[in-house]
Amino acid sequence: MINSKKIIAVLPAYNAALTLEKTYKEIPFDIVDDVVLVDDCSKDNTVEVAQKIGIKHVIKHEKNKGYGGNQKTCYDTALSLGADIVIMLHPDYQYTPKLIHSLSYLIANDLYPVAFGSRILGKGALKGGMPLYKYIFNRCLTFSQNVLINQKLSEYHTGYRAFSRQVIEKINYHANSDDFVFDNQMISQIFYAGFDIAEVTCPTKYFPEASSINFRRSAKYGMGVLGTSFIHFFNRIGLLKSEIYKTNK
């Protein structure tokens, strides 16, 4: 805990058996109170590895629900366990768990309700091996999103995120897609609800075992991201009233 706030790390997992233990061992348990792993019907032995290394809360989807569907289960479970701060960490070891301290303290000290680890602040992305086409894709999408959403994030596509309980309870994340665009819909909801997002420079690693989507899925994701940004824009100027922006009381 920090300032009596319970911290739970959630790990949305899919075929993460080769990297899960390495990720888990770097989680700072001096502040992290609990870990939840949600396995999205992996084809490897992710669940067995999770149980072997001592993760208490392991949930296995009997059918693949998609990246967004996995996160919905993660956040539902974290809230049910009494989390005050939820850290979303990919178990593929692309992001170091050592930054959990920095992300958590920003929220625990009431400086920001949301904090992201950014690969783009500094030169971490390309140094860590991000393919050049993905870097350019990231920068172009982020520029477009900042214009349409009227914000100034360094990137919208990081998978390393920390949320206060208040934010997760407030936004209607269950109305979002079950696919990869879920992440960007969630950011759009957070900004639309009036919350601010802090960013911390985050080193990243690209290697064969780390999860990644291919060019076709990347292109589909990019179209979904732009669609989300335009929907946000039209809601912001009053031309639409979308279900995803209805907040919970």
What are the main properties of this structure?
249 residues, alpha/beta, Spore Coat Polysaccharide Biosynthesis Protein SpsA, Chain A, 7-stranded mixed sheet, 9 helices
Describe the 3D structure.
The protein has 249 residues and is of the alpha/beta class. It has a single domain (7-245), classed as Alpha-Beta Complex (Spore Coat Polysaccharide Biosynthesis Protein SpsA, Chain A). It has helices at 20-25, 46-53, 66-80, 100-108, 124-127, 132-149, 165-170, 182-192, 215-236; strands at 7-13, 34-39, 57-60, 85-88, 114-118, 161-164, 197-201. α6 (132-149) packs parallel to α9 (215-236) and α8 packs parallel to α9 (215-236). The model has no long low-confidence stretch (mean pLDDT 94).
The largest sheet has its strands arranged as 3-2-1-4-6-5-7
Tell me the overall shape.
Answer: globular
Fourth-tier CATH superfamily name: Spore Coat Polysaccharide Biosynthesis Protein SpsA, Chain A
Please work out how many helical segments DSSP would assign. 9
Major sheet size, sense and barrel closure: 7 strands, mixed
CATH architecture name: Alpha-Beta Complex
Q: Mean pLDDT across all residues, rounded?
A: 94
Please write out the topology:
Elements: E1 7-13, H1 20-25, E2 34-39, H2 46-53, E3 57-60, H3 66-80, E4 85-88, H4 100-108, E5 114-118, H5 124-127, H6 132-149, E6 161-164, H7 165-170, H8 182-192, E7 197-201, H9 215-236
Parallel strand pairs: 1-2, 1-4, 2-3, 5-7
Antiparallel strand pairs: 4-6, 5-6
Helix pairs in contact: 6-9, 8-9
